[in-house]
Amino acid sequence: MGWWYCAIAIGFALLAIEHMLTGDKPWLIGVRFVIAAGFGFLGWMEFHARHPKP
Fold first, then answer.
1. Who contacts 43 (Cβ-Cβ below 8 Å, separation ≥6)?
2. What's the CA gap between 30 and 33, in Å, rounded?
3. How many CB atoms lie within 10 A of CB 34?
4. Residues 27-54: pLDDT tens digits?
């Protein structure tokens, strides 16, 4: 599940970079980076979670 969060984070970061290059509104770019950081943090938490072994 952690890889999904990381993939979504990378997607939002790339989307923010693309909108930064095309000259979109700065607050929308910031929102995309905040969303990317949130999903990146979720991915990090998922990778560092202690899952019980069956």
1. 2, 3, 4, 5, 6, 9
2. 5
3. 12
4. 999 999 999 999 999 999 999 987 776 6
